């Protein structure tokens, strides 16, 4: 599959900084796959999910909610109350319309990249983690990023990211999504993405 048109489309839909973030997420996820899974067999799927994951992120919240309702997308109550969180669901739906033959794991990765879910699969975990860790993000310094990357598995790294995310939400007076809490519970009880 030729991803140049996809990348160009994304670059035309978002600010340049968001495009750079999307590209960095894809590259970070590829590095994670090489390091933890010792494979590059997912590279084409990783690139597609990574470059597309935030393609709807700059839409107004009201447009995201209207789109989800118009297309009868299965959204969480938590998302409906915070429509900006719908950008993954909307982006996944748009990609499916654009490329009907897209692999289901790509759609799951895009759908759950913000909130996480036990159902997001290995590709979803790689994108979820990479979205948090990619080096253009400023909430982590190099030491914190290196420490996270010393974990022994994708699952343990994902759990560390989930816990840091939940801690940040608590510190800022917000609550985590039910799917995020389910992911934390799943991983802390030995759940696997394989």
Q: What is the highest CATH level, the class?
A: Mainly Alpha
Q: What is the strand content?
A: under 5%
**Into which percent range does the helicity of residues fall?**
55-70%
CA-based shape:
globular
Main sheet overview? none
**Separation of termini?**
25 Å
Tell me how many strands there are.
0
Number of helices: 11
Structural class label: mainly alpha
Name given to the CATH architecture? Orthogonal Bundle
**Unreliable spans:** none
Fourth-level CATH superfamily:
Hypothetical protein af1432
Counting structural domains, the number is 1
Say what the CATH topology is.
Hypothetical protein af1432
If you average the pLDDT, what whole number results? 96
Q: Can you write the helix and strand succession as a string?
A: HHHHHHHHHHH
Task: Tell me the Rg in angstroms.
Answer: 16 Å
Commentary on this structure:
This protein is mostly helical and 194 residues long. It has one domain: Hypothetical protein af1432. It is 65% helix and 0% strand. The longest helix is centred in the N-terminal third of the chain and has 22 residues, at 16-37. It is globular. The protein starts with a helix and ends in a 6-residue tail after the last helix. The mean pLDDT is 96.
What secondary-structure arrangement, pairings included, does this model have?
Layout: H1 4-13, H2 16-37, H3 43-52, H4 61-70, H5 77-81, H6 87-98, H7 104-112, H8 121-133, H9 142-148, H10 154-171, H11 178-188
Helix pairs in contact: 2-3, 2-8, 3-7, 3-8, 6-7, 7-8, 8-10, 10-11
């Amino acid at each position: 599959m030729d991803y140049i048109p996809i990348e160009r489309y994304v670059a035309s839909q978002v600010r340049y900084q968001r495009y750079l973030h999307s590209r960095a997420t894809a590259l970070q996820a590829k590095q994670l796959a090489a390091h933890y899974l010792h494979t590059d067999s997912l590279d084409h799927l990783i690139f597609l999910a990574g470059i597309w994951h935030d393609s709807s992120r700059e839409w107004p919240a009201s447009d995201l909610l209207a789109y989800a309702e118009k297309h009868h997308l299965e959204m969480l109550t938590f998302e409906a109350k915070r429509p900006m969180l719908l950008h993954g669901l909307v982006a996944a739906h748009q990609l499916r319309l654009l490329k009907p033959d897209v692999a289901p794991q790509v759609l799951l990765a895009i759908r759950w990249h913000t909130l996480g879910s036990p159902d997001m699969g290995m590709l979803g975990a790689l994108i979820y983690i990479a979205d948090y860790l990619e080096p253009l993000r400023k909430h982590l310094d190099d030491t914190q990023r290196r420490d996270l990357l010393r974990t022994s598995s994708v699952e343990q790294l994902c759990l560390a990211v989930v816990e840091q995310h939940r801690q940040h939400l608590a510190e800022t007076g917000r609550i985590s999504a039910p799917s995020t809490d389910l992911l934390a519970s799943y991983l802390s009880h030995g759940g696997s993405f394989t």
